[in-house]
What does this fold into?
Amino acid sequence: MPIALITGATGFIGAALVKHLHQAGWNIRALTRSLSHPCVLNNPHYHWIIGDFTELDKLPALCKDVDVVFHAAGFAHASKNGDESFWNKHRDINEIATIQLAEKAASSGVKRFVFFSSIKADNPIKQDPYACAKYAAETALLQLCENSQMEGVILRLSLVYGVGWKGNLLALLKAIDKNRMLPMPNVGNRKSMVSVQDACQAARIAATITLTEHRIFIISDGVPYSTDQIYHLMRKALGKCQISFSVPLCLWRYFGYVGDLLQRVCKINLPIHSEKIEKLFASSWYDMNDYTVLTGYVPQYTLSDVLPDIVRDYRENLCKEC
It folds into this structure.
């Protein structure tokens, strides 16, 4: 069976991918920065390598005898008010270090490099350092593959959901659970999302398919989610009664403006401000038809399928914190 190197192997996507590939019979080489991480302690049958992909000089044999590299590590935090240090960190980790890893893989004889990118790279804007860094890494990877024997596949993932998720989706679930989230209006927006299980399935397919000239693919579960639909699905999974009314979008925007004012006056970051409100109700829908047609990839899960497991895990973690 092929040997796979997974970076970010203890992260949300990486940990799921390691498990998925192991169950499919792959030999696993998993990169982690800490051997004391629960994922490492609970899975001694993987070949764990301690190190950081941004410090390749300390990992000279990282890609030796590896057939496929799955690059899932990265820096995904949002920029704080245009903070230059965030821009530099995105460039250093998501762009420069990714390119250096791909170069090392190519020189080590790796056959294929599967890069976990983001749908934000589909239309990068100058104000988003994450999208710009991912897009720059994509461009460099494709150029490298043209000049080497290594093949590259880029998966632009939609917003990923599943047990162990973090970020805005988990914050929304917590707020709804604690009755701190106002009912959301139907504004007709659409968002692309994908389960972590289906993201892993898409990655395994990407590692084994016969490639055409098309090397960049958008991955989603094919469902156009609206913000209010996500809100109601979460309420249902949490066992809360459904609400028939909603707070109009104009009031949500008003709350955002108030948050902006308080942030400027108090010099603190608040959970509600105009930028977050606009993102919450904006559309980010992408068609993944190409990947389905070319590879036969068929999503197996939707958010409503996975939310019961997410809620169960969330509550178990709450009990542990008590």
User: Anything to note?
Assistant: The beta strands are 3-7, 27-32, 47-50, 68-71, 112-118, 151-157, 159-161, 193-195, 216-219. The chain has a mean pLDDT of 92. The radius of gyration is 20 Å.
